[in-house]
């Protein structure tokens, strides 16, 4: 089983969690939700002698992807990946909330889209794409089954859930998706959300007030 190392950083105007996940042996790396401070991320990658392979976006809101263009500039070979149903959000400053929240339109294009249930060979292991709409239509969680690690963006938080009052949001879809697709994962699965602290699936099943 591949040993993965996780470096987290809280970045950007709304304190978004950015995760750098690397294979300890090969240094192959993915950056999940590069929220902001692209130069900081590039410097960290260089300092750790990491080999960036992909940028994984859990969804298309500006606060989860503003540093992606800087990473693409520094590492042209990397793939920027997002759920198929959120690709449009990257191109629309109203939908990605950049215009209403920071007053500056942000747009970009992904290199690749993924769909629910798709499995990628990455970092020397398998990673499953789990689509949970509700916060956005194409919200994508990235699950490493061998390591029991889930990076879920703004889907499920420690003791809470993602907002559903933004364009394309749906509380019914979010709650249903969490129950059917996240709460059915092994209870020991570590959950790394887009904001606040990590948690575990089992803890949220028993303690999350929304359920």
Overall description:
It is a single chain. The chain has helices spanning 38-47, 68-74, 87-91, 98-102, 171-182, 201-207; strands at 4-11, 16-23, 28-32, 51-57, 79-83, 112-114, 119-122, 125-131, 140-144, 149-153, 156-157, 160-161, 190-193, 199-200. The protein is an alpha/beta fold and 211 residues long. It is built from six helices and 14 strands. 46% of the residues are buried. The radius of gyration is 16 Å and the shape is globular. The model has no long low-confidence stretch (mean pLDDT 97). A hairpin with a 5-residue loop joins strand 13 and strand 14 (199-200).
Q: Which key features would you list for this structure?
A:
about 210 residues; 6-stranded mixed beta sheet; 6 helices; about 20% helix
In short:
The chain has 211 residues and is an alpha/beta fold. The chain is built from six helices and 14 strands. α1 crosses α2.
The number of helical elements comes to 6
- Spatially, the strands of the biggest sheet line up as 1-2-3-4-5-6
- Radius of gyration based on Cα positions: 16 Å
Beta-strand residue fraction: 25-35%
First-last Cα distance: 33 Å
Instruction: Output mean pLDDT.
Output: 97
- Order of helix and strand elements from N to C terminus: EEEHEHEHHEEEEEEEHEEH
How are the elements arranged and paired?
Layout (H helix, E strand, L loop, with lengths): L3 E8 L4 E8 L4 E5 L5 H10 L3 E7 L10 H7 L4 E5 L3 H5 L6 H5 L9 E3 L4 E4 L2 E7 L8 E5 L4 E5 L2 E2 L2 E2 L9 H12 L7 E4 L5 E2 H7 L4
Parallel strand pairs: 3-4, 4-5, 5-6, 10-13
Antiparallel strand pairs: 1-2, 2-3, 7-8, 8-9, 9-10, 11-12, 13-14
Helix pairs in contact: 1-2
């Amino acid at each position: 089983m591949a040993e993965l190392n996780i470096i987290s950083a809280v970045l950007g105007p709304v304190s978004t969690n950015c995760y750098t996940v690397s294979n300890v042996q090969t240094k192959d790396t993915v950056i999940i939700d590069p929220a902001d401070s692209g130069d900081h991320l590039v410097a960290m990658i260089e300092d750790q002698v990491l080999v960036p392979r992909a940028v994984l976006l859990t969804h298309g809101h500006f606060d989860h992807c503003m540093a992606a263009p800087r990473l693409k500039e520094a590492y042209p070979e990397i793939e920027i990946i997002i759920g198929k149903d959120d690709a449009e959000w990257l191109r629309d400053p109203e939908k990605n909330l950049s215009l209403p929240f920071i007053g500056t339109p942000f747009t970009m294009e992904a290199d690749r889209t993924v769909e629910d249930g798709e499995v990628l060979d990455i970092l020397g292991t398998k990673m499953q794409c789990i689509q949970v709409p509700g916060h956005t239509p194409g919200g994508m969680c990235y699950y490493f089954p061998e390591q029991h690690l889930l990076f879920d963006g703004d889907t499920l938080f420690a003791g809470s859930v993602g907002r559903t009052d933004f364009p394309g949001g749906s509380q019914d879809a979010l709650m249903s998706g969490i129950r059917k697709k996240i709460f059915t994962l092994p209870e020991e699965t570590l959950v790394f959300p887009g904001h606040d602290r990590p948690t575990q699936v089992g803890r949220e099943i028993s303690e999350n007030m929304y359920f």
